[in-house]
């Protein structure tokens, strides 16, 4: 990997295009290096993972709405939409939109955390949609997704958005644009313009993840993917973008991030170096914000030592700055302690999540969020006794670049009514590559089967999984097979969402 410094320049001495970060990202996208076998295998895993979480969300209101919008934009050849027959196609940007919402709705797919955080699987819907529309092959798709994962993860390693309250989709727009550039074999100049446009239009605030969290949390990555498709289309037609988008006097660093005096360092593969960043990311076993994954596993483990939660008088979760301030009591959000809060809010409340996991010994993507579950009196009583504290040691481990030391968990102290103290800690989730039960292809398939049960017919599940096994060798024009069709009665009623413009 090569480290690239990125800072603001005055307009009078701005760097040439080839020295700008957007161009360097474009250079990664246009490097013809082949994808290594273990990376291709993991890309297949994440295609399965996305399909799993999309299947489980197909009848949920935001997904039904997004799918209805997409169906109003039919196209030939077009791209497929999760749940619909493969022969029914929509325009690529709207397919990216509908599928992106389906994948993101349950907050249940892959993650990468470093200077910022991300769900790099959000790149798959826009890249796949363009690949289907343009008749690309499985090899083309694999190469494109290796780029998209690489660019997003490397940006997340080097540039923190959340400290400036910028939503993390600002790294997703450029990565999806870069991935599509690889897919289509575009030149660096065209990808450079597309990356700049995608970044410029996806720098949004983090209010979407603050307070009473709305359904926009699922739509935000889909918006970035849709914008990326459109940005590439405009760039291919010769349209240009604001530049230097990162380094400019009124660019992203100067006005939205750490300001003109700050220097960022972004690692990127050297020319000819394989793109392997996807192997540093990890998926979720539980449908909740990633920093809660390890704590759910810890709660399940501690439950054996706390069989009667009515005796709990105090719970302290000592954890990283990020966990404390984003999903813990350090956020200052009263909604995180509100039994009537939305599902989107509850999955960003570690006090709620730990309380339910401690009582139930499990986490379920539907049952654990039901209003009657959140409002159960004994759960509310326990929930209100849970608080988080930042621990400098866990913060240091959260930001460590050493995979063996990096941690996303914490230490929990439970005090019972007789003064008994129960303590335990966990560094990473059980499903993490360094966890107790790391996910590999069998676990991804198991997750898919579990979430698709009762939604996707068994024969259709088998067909989809067999297609993924062929992914690197799928011929051109066969990528429509990487979708799942669902009986119409299981897709929810579009009439329930009301009627919009389309």
Automatic annotation (TrEMBL):
InterPro entries: MmgE/PrpD_sf, MmgE/PrpD_sf_1, MmgE/PrpD_sf_2, MmgE_PrpD, MmgE_PrpD_C, MmgE_PrpD_N. Residues 19-260 form the MmgE/PrpD N-terminal domain. Residues 323-342 are annotated as: Disordered. Pfam families: MmgE_PrpD_C, MmgE_PrpD_N. Residues 286-471 form the MmgE/PrpD C-terminal domain. It comes from the Bacteria. Belongs to the PrpD family. This is MmgE/PrpD family protein. It comes from Kineococcus glutinatus. The lineage of its organism: Bacteria, Bacillati, Actinomycetota, Actinomycetes, Kineosporiales.
């Amino acid at each position: 990997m090569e480290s690239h410094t990125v800072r603001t320049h005055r307009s009078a001495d701005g760097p040439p295009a080839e020295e700008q970060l957007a161009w360097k990202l474009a250079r990664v996208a246009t490097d013809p290096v082949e994808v290594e076998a273990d990376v291709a295998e993991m890309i297949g895993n994440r295609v399965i993972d996305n399909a799993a979480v999309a299947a489980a969300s197909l009848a949920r209101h935001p997904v039904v709405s997004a799918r209805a919008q997409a169906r109003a934009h039919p196209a030939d050849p077009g791209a497929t939409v999760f749940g619909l027959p493969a022969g029914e196609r929509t325009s690529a940007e709207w397919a990216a939109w509908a599928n992106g919402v389906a994948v993101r709705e349950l907050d249940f797919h892959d993650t990468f955390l470093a200077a910022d955080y991300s769900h790099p699987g959000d790149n798959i819907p826009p890249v796949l949609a363009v690949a289907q529309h343009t008749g690309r092959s499985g090899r083309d798709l694999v190469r494109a997704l290796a780029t998209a994962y690489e660019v997003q993860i490397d940006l997340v390693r080097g540039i923190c958005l959340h400290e400036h309250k910028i939503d993390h989709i600002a790294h997703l727009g450029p990565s999806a644009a870069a991935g599509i550039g690889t897919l289509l074999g575009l030149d660096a100049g065209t990808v450079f313009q597309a990356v700049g446009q995608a970044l410029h239009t996806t720098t949004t605030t983090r209010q979407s993840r603050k307070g009473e969290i709305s359904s926009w949390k699922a739509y935000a990555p889909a918006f970035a993917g849709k914008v990326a498709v459109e940005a590439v289309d405009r760039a291919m037609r010769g349209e240009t973008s604001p530049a230097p988008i990162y380094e400019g006097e009124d660019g992203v660093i100067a006005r939205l991030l750490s300001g003109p005096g700050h220097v960022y360092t972004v690692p990127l593969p050297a020319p000819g170096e394989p793109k392997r960043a996807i192997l540093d990311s990890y998926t979720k076993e539980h449908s909740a914000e990633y920093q809660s994954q390890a704590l759910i596993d810890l709660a399940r483990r501690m439950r054996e030592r706390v069989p009667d939660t009515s005796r709990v008088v105090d719970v302290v979760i000592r954890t990283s700055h990020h966990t404390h301030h984003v999903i813990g009591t350090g956020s200052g959000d009263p909604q995180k302690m509100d039994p009537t809060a939305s599902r989107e809010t509850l999955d960003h409340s570690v006090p709620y999540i730990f309380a339910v996991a401690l009582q139930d010994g499990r986490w379920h993507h539907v049952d654990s969020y039901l209003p009657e579950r959140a409002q159960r009196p004994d759960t509310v009583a326990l929930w209100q006794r849970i608080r988080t504290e930042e621990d400098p040691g866990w913060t240091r481990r959260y930001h460590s670049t050493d995979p063996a030391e990096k941690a996303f968990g914490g230490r929990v102290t439970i005090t019972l009514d007789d003064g008994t103290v129960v303590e335990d800690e966990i560094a990473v989730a059980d499903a993490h590559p360094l966890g107790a039960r790391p996910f590999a292809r069998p676990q991804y398939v198991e997750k898919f089967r579990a979430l698709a049960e009762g939604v996707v017919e068994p024969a259709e599940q088998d067909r989809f999984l067999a297609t993924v096994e062929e992914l690197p060798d799928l011929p051109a024009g066969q990528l429509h097979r990487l979708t799942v069709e669902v009986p119409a009665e299981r897709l929810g009623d579009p009439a329930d969402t009301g009627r919009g413009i389309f």
